[in-house]
TrEMBL record:
It comes from Amycolatopsis keratiniphila subsp. keratiniphila. The lineage of its organism: Bacteria, Bacillati, Actinomycetota, Actinomycetes, Pseudonocardiales. This is Fluoroacetyl-CoA-specific thioesterase-like domain-containing protein. InterPro entries: FlK, FlK-like_dom, HotDog_dom_sf. Residues 16-117 form the Fluoroacetyl-CoA-specific thioesterase-like domain. Pfam families: FlK.
Amino acid sequence: MKPLPDTVRAEYRHEVTDQDTAVRWRNDLPVLATPVLLWLGEITAMRALEGYLEDDEMTVGLSHDSSHLAPTPAGREVQLTAVLRERTGSKLVFDVYGRDDSEEILSGTHTRAVVRRSRFLARLAGKDHASPT
């Protein structure tokens, strides 16, 4: 990984569509689904790292510790922010926040790891030939 500046952050805006709602996750609520909100936090953290990864590097998600604080209906825009809080070896911990036009909707952390793409793909290919247990 290339050297990081003192502050690494990104913002991401997304308009909530019907495809993003909990209705798609077997719930009857037409609001932004928690799995989609977490995914948007991941995208934002990944964007914060754009330009800092070497050619054969990528990041993978390791964990989330976040709270979905309020509902957002389809048609509204959400804004996510990811700020790198800590780097320990290959692990990167981001503070992630989200807002819609009226209130905070997400607060928490998201951890990613820097890995070699070629090594990751080789490991994945090994599973293609392994028997499922």
